[in-house]
Amino acid sequence: EVQLVESGGGVVRPGGSLRLSCAASGFTFDDSGMSWVRQGPGKGLEWLGGINWNGGRIVYADSVKGRFTISRDNAKNSLYLQMKTLRAEDTALYYCARGDFYMEVWGRGTTVIVSS
Amino acid sequence: DIQMTQSPSTLSASVGDRVTITCRASQNISAWLAWYQAKPGKAPKLLIYKASTLESGVPSRFSGSGSGTEFTLTISSLQPDDFATYYCQQYDSFSLTFGQGTKVEF
């Protein structure tokens, strides 16, 4: 069974940092592009960025460019999202997904709350 | 960035209804469009990719059509499990964008 499990969410103060992880199983991770998507409270889905199978192409949404960094470790079947200089508007449910064009499979998400 | 606009934002329907959701792109995206279903507390689900290709396991009452800048998602006979929010997403460029969503409610 294809499975994606996000972790690392929590409460962080404005200006702080957080690193999210996504553990993948049930498919050939190192053949797959991956993406991060978030959904703020009462809002729609927002694509944050994607990474191709070997990390050779990483693309970010303008809203997070320069603050968020996507990486992957194919040996650990894991995807990461390093977030810095967090703002209140970054409060959201963060999903990882298989695919860097369309998202074939999604995790259930991890919640990030940015609040003082 | 390519902007995606869905209509309507909210749709009231009943079980058995035929439902159509429209998604418009701000520029030509050929057929590089996907549709998703999202429900609170659950992982979003891919329904359709390349505008009209049904993802494996998705019921055949779902269909997609269109190309260029105008696309539709149709549910031929709405079922209780279909009350959800639906999103389109373009992947014509490396910078991906979603529509704002269409909530299908009773």
CA(first)-CA(last) distance of chain B: 34 Å
Q: Radius of gyration of chain B over alpha carbons?
A: 13 Å
Q: Which oligomerization state do the chains in this entry correspond to?
A: heterodimer
Tally of helical runs of chain B = 0
Low-pLDDT runs of chain B: none
Topology at a glance:
The complex is a heterodimer of chains A (116) and B (106).
Chain A: E1 3-7, E2 10-12, E3 18-25, E4 34-39, E5 45-51, E6 58-60, E7 68-73, E8 78-83, E9 92-98, E10 105-106, E11 110-114
Parallel strand pairs in A: 2-11
Antiparallel strand pairs in A: 1-3, 3-8, 4-5, 4-9, 5-6, 7-8, 9-10, 9-11
Chain B: E1 4-7, E2 10-12, E3 19-25, E4 33-38, E5 45-49, E6 53-54, E7 62-67, E8 70-75, E9 85-90, E10 97-98, E11 102-105
Parallel strand pairs in B: 2-11
Antiparallel strand pairs in B: 1-3, 3-8, 4-5, 4-9, 5-6, 7-8, 9-10, 9-11
Structure description:
The complex is a heterodimer of chains A (116) and B (106). Chain A has 116 residues and is mainly β. Helix content of chain A is 0%, strand content 50%. Chain A has strands at residues 3-7, 10-12, 18-25, 34-39, 45-51, 58-60, 68-73, 78-83, 92-98, 105-106, 110-114. Chain A starts with a strand and ends with a strand. Chain B has strands at 4-7, 10-12, 19-25, 33-38, 45-49, 53-54, 62-67, 70-75, 85-90, 97-98, 102-105. By secondary structure, chain B is mostly beta strands. In chain B, strands 2, 4, 5, 6, 9, 10 and 11 form a seven-stranded mixed beta sheet that branches. Classes of the chains: A mainly beta (116), B mainly beta (106). The A-B interface holds A 4, 35, 37, 39, 44-47, 50, 57, 59, 61-62, 95, 97, 101-109 and B 1, 32, 34, 36, 38, 41-46, 49, 55, 85, 87, 89, 91, 94-101.
Distinctive features:
A: 116 residues, mainly beta, 7-stranded mixed beta sheet, 11 strands, globular, B: 106 residues, 0% helix
Question: Summarize this, please?
Answer:
The complex is a heterodimer of chains A (116) and B (106). Helices cover 0% and strands 50% of the residues of chain A.
